[in-house]
Amino acid sequence: MKIVVIQGPNLNMLGVREQNIYGPMKLDDVHAQMEEYAKQNGVEIEFFQSNLEGEIVDRIQECLGDADGIIINPAAYTHTSIAIRDAIAAVQIPTVEVHLSNIHQREEFRQTSLIAPVCAGQIVGFGPFSYHLAMISIVQIMREIAAMKEAQAGQQAQAALQGN
Ligand code: DQA
Asked: Could you give the CA distance from residue 150 to residue 163 in angstroms, rounded to a whole number?
């Protein structure tokens, strides 16, 4: 099972940008913690950060046939990008939206997510711990889907044996 983590614009500046909102932790350190959790749970993980909307769309498309789950912090594109929303809807891979800050508590323009309606769920407001909660969620979702597929395959095999 494989998770792809996609980080939007300015998240490469974590630990430097607006520390009063986003805290002192650097993106590499957030990713190191996620990698540790992935290892403990026997899942593969890959990280991608871009400041460009089209590159994020490309990376989501590349997940098709490759990833079983996506964790995305679309950053400012959360509030503007129909293209990123459409890409997530297109690939139909379970996706968890993450934000460090509680976007629902902030400026009005941040309170709308164009991405949330095509995601399995949204986690906001826990700082870097939001990513840990996203890992727990996506691993659970991927396991449930894998178990469902296995059960379906078992049923099909049995039906074939019985000549149905
Ligand atoms: C953010 C919230 C966005 O509104 C903002 O543009 C970001 C970070 C967050 O993680 O809290 O860049 O996605």
From this structure: 20
